[in-house]
Amino acid sequence: MNEQPKRIRIDHAEARSRPLAPDGAAEREAQPRGARTRKGRPVDHAEAAERFLAAPDHLSFHDKRLWDLREKRDREARGIPEWEQLRGLASQIKEHTLARLDDYLEEFERRATASGVVVHWARDAAEHNRIVLGILRGAGASRLVKSKSMLTEECGMRDFLAEHEIEVVETDLGERIQQLDDEDPSHVVVPAVHKLRSDVAAVFARTLGSDPSNDDPAYLAERQRMSNRPLILEARVGMTGANFLVAETGAVVVCTNEGNADLCASVPEVHIVSAGIEKLIPRARDLGVFIRLLSRSALGSPITQYTSHFRAPRAGGQMHVILVDNGRSNRLGMDEFWTSLKCIRCGACMNTCPVYRRSGGLSYGATYSGPIGLIIDPTIDRHKYSQLPYASTLNGSCTAVCPVGINIHEQILSWRRVMAEAHEPAMGKRLSMKGASAVLSRPAAYRRAVDAANAVLPHMPRFVLYNPANAWGKGRDVPAAPGQSFHAWYAAHRGPRR
Amino acid sequence: MTARQTILDAVRRNRPRGEHKLPEIPGFAAPGDPASEFKRRLAQMGGRLLAPDGADPLAPARAMIAEAGSGIVVSRVAALPGNRALDGAAPASLHDVDLAVLQAAFAVAETGSVALRAVDLGVNALGYLAQRLLVLVETRDIVATLHDAYARPDFHEQPYVVLQTGPSATADIEGVLIHGAQGVRALSVLLLGPE
Fold it and tell me: How far is A48 from chain B (nearest CA, A)?
């Protein structure tokens, strides 16, 4: 069969804005690259964001594409009367599971083992990587075909396996683009969303031998499909991540759209699952809540094309599940931050965040970017990610869309306090941010400050707002201040009579 | 100490405070008539619904198989024979299958999904390596919501269950939706039985 893939205009997951790069344009805008990491220095998100802001084609596409996903999410959410109830249930189920995680991990292990699955435990990234290598060696494999997994990114597995002469093939289109371009994924759901079609055409021309002048997405996707396929057919070992682990049944649940995860699981003899220990849920029926929320929050579609439930090895095959801690048990003990472990990696907080949409995921210089990254990354390396909690306007939109009710913006604020106490931010930011941190952490003082800002802002000349000492003014206009704060209005109109 | 013990100990030591009860999941109302909601969602997700034939319910499926011509057809439905047997096939040997004909265990109205179990697929890879799928669904087997779906025993008994919703898809390049990402390029559904 040499059928050409169809390009159909339907509304699921499709962007509104296309094409952006005019066909045959002589000069294509160079893709802005991510944060420059320097050993021992905190990631400078603001510096990378500035370069992203200076690339108008990329910026405009990125901003619109992600906002479009947010709008589709809203449409799906509005279509379900019990949406808010589902969010509440999801939050409670996750909090319950995390509070009894030891029991549920043991129950999962017992069930999975009884079905013939080999369960491994990894304390950290290095141990995870060694286990994977051991399974590959045992199967006599020199190649690993895999689907998308944020955990293997977190573990730096590709680099480790490359050092041991194992070729890793990312089979998800976005993830493969990023691998071939030697870049990290910039988004948990759409890994190459910061690239334009012209960027992808250049990467594939260089690495897959595609026609450099053809940047039609259908052509590029077909090239990748055809280059993947023989590698999957020959592979002895395949790997997937996990969206959920069901304690009651020992099932691994994987949610994807491209079909590559199921190919990686069902064609090679050996299927490895890499899963963080926080992926547990108690019961099969809990999936009803989470699957209803996940893709609606992520892409605004009612479900992913494939929702796969692996409870046992396929006939004639082996299945391994690696349960990875890598800092999670430590995070569990952090009073203010443990609920970040509820995250189901839908990316809704990223799509809605004005800072993320205008700076791109790579500017965070971390595995997890956007609002959820701001609260996870510092638990991994407090110094390296000490500036990330400032990459936020604290508008609360992330919290408002989070399907599992994580108080993301409040945790961002708490991290600022932690960093301020540890004197972490660089001097320039501290000048303007320290006050914000101290003021915003106390509601009454915050209200006084807002009232003062409302009185003062309209009369402040631009040079005060946009001078180099004000990190907030960079790359964004300060919105017009309302004449009255909400609290003042509420007190006057609805509040208790004084 | 083993990694297992280290991790479980740390998790136990760091248990969050508070009660954190596991909630019961209440029943939720169906989003309209299951058959029509299923059709609407299937179309949204890029699946194709075969037009029914009142006189001969399987005629649309036979026509689709006939159209495949010399292409390789593997069928898991006894009444609709293909031209290659599946039994015991190595997964990779299915790389040249054009059309796979399958019977869904059930379908989900609110998402437009068809449920395929290990026992329905015979070889799991058949559902992904074939270029196209034709899936038969008994109208009475359409459940309204995912809550209804997850109440089924299949998720406790089967080694593998997949909810497939339309064909494989990607929007990873500039958000342009493409069907035929890595898995099947097209998914057609034939509804059987009275609505």
Answer: 21
- For A82-328, CATH gives 3.40.50.10420
User: Cβ of B10 under 8 Å from any chain A Cβ?
Assistant: yes
Nearest CA in chain A to B167: A305
Q: Count, in order, helices (H) and strands (E) of chain B.
A: 7, 11
Per-domain residue ranges of chain A: 82-328, 330-493
Dihedral pair phi/psi, residue B7, rounded to 5°: -70, -45
How far lies A296's CA from each of A73, A289, B114, B127, in Å? 5, 12, 18, 24
pLDDT one-digit tens code per residue, A228-256: 999 999 999 999 999 999 999 999 999 99
B185 in reach of chain A (CB within 8 A): yes
Is this complex scored with an ipTM above 0.95?
Answer: yes
Domain A330-493: top CATH class: mainly alpha
DSSP secondary structure letter of residue A6: B
Contact B25 A289 (CB under 8 A): yes
β-pair type (A143-146, A167-170): parallel
How many interface pairs between A and B have CB atoms less than 8 angstroms apart? Answer: 313
Q: pTM of the entire structure?
A: 0.88
Domains and CATH numbers, chain B: 32-192 (3.40.50.10420)
* Chain A residues whose beta carbon lies within 8 Å of the beta carbon of residue B21: 92, 96
Question: Could you read off the pLDDT of B47-100 as tens digits, one per residue?
Answer: 999 999 989 999 999 999 999 999 999 999 999 999 999 988 999 999 999 999
Q: Which of B13, B21, B168 is facing A96, going by the closest CB pair?
A: B21
